[in-house]
Amino acid sequence: xxxxxxxxxxxxxxxxxxxxxxxxxxxxxxxxxxxxxxxxxxxxxxxxxxxxxxxxxxxxxxxxxxxxxxxxxxxxxxxxxxxxxxxxxxxxxxxxxxxxxxxxxxxxxxxxxxxxxxxxxxxxxxxxxxxxxxxxxxxxxxxxxxxxxxxxxxxxxxxxxxxxxxxxxxxxxxxxxxxxxxxxxxxxxxxxxxxxxxxxxxxxxxxxxxxxxxxxxxxxxxxxxxxxxxxxxxxxxxxxxxxxxxxxxxxxxxxxxxxxxxxxxxxxxxxxxxxxxxxxxxxxxxxxxxxxxxxxxxxxxxxxxxxxxxxxxxxxxxxxxxxxxxxxxxxxxxxxxxxxxxxxxxxxxxxxxxxxxxxxxxxxxxxxxxxxxxxxxxxxxxxxxxxxxxxxxxx
Length: 395
Ligand code: G3I
Prior knowledge:
- The chain contains 13 helices and 12 strands.
- The strands form 2 sheets. It has an 8-stranded parallel beta barrel, surrounded by 5 helices. It has a two-stranded antiparallel sheet with strand order 1-2.
- It is globular.
- Helices cover about 40% and strands about 15% of the residues.
- It has helices spanning about 5-15, 40-45, 60-70, 85, 95-105, 125-130, 140-155, 185-190, 195-205, 230-245, 265-275, 300-325, 370-380, and strands at about 20-25, 30, 50-55, 75, 110-120, 160-165, 210-215, 250-255, 255-260, 280-295, 325-330, 355.
- Strand 3 (about 50-55), helix 3 (about 60-70) and strand 4 (about 75) form a beta-alpha-beta unit.
- The longest helix has 24 residues, at about 300-325.
- It is an alpha/beta fold.
- The structure holds ligand G3I.
- The site of ligand G3I has 8 residues, from loops.
């Protein structure tokens, strides 16, 4: 199907998805068929925000805009709030793309997750090269980070619901030296682990009301709680930060999954989320997607089991989040297969291509995963599923 046809079909799909057809219910009342309701509408009664990452370039496509506006109550900038985009030249901030994103969110009454203040990737070259050639020393680097956090958080002050303050600061089991999870990356190498607490304190000073999050992948469930359990490491880190009165309000589990792995049940997801909530922080699923290793010559017989496995994983994450009252938002990292980051990512040797990670196909048509999310949101409620508990920013 060509893109022109795809757009038309997509708009039809959106119209149907956002429509209001009613079906009779046994008790004499009429209820709207969940398949005709939007994710954001279905999530309202749980006080759960359902979000998506937004590819700002794709907002030129009216069908993309319409799905993004109607299905989601929260949005995250996929790339345009990252440091390389905001400050490509030292000292000169360019807010244009980020403001285009913010205008979209504000026009559609959507909550914004700010992404991301401190990360090892997508840093401007003037910064990484300056550190590499010695023209930026450690003291100056720390001051540069302080200034960046302050400038960005103050710029968006009052408009951001949750900030990803520190992202992906720790190792995975496969790259941990010394047989234990530890800190990793550019900021740790140059500033030591203390930068994490500094970053939260600087962010709080710049916006007293935003919820401040630590965000990471492969923390979707606890493992054996031993030295190579990344979730347990992050749990200890957050506990320590809270004990030191560092203003951290939340933990984001990215939840980038692949159907190649066994992954987790809703019970394991809930256990992880509850574990963080017990520390006094809110939680969020921040970058959900479930990619598939593509068969050589895809047919219904080879694709359908993958789509079912994908739906199970999306659903387990949603059910775990619904069951944990401090899980405030469920954000997908892109909603359609045409715009997913997985299409161009190299997942390493021996893995081959992994894609088809989103809940809508490349023509914006619902996949089984989308239907599973609608069902989870529709057919859940008291006594097991109760509305979210709002989180107050700590000082
Ligand atoms: O901006 C350049 C553009 O000028 C150039 O023409 C083009 C050519 O490839 O590349 C563009 O940059 C790309 C950028 O996305 C913006 O589109 C980079 O190559 C590409 O690597 C980059 O990928 C992003 C990735 O983060 C970078 O690490 C993905 O879109 C984005 O989805 C992904 O998001 C991350 C989260 O921020 C953190 N958690 C993991 C998640 C998935 O990797």
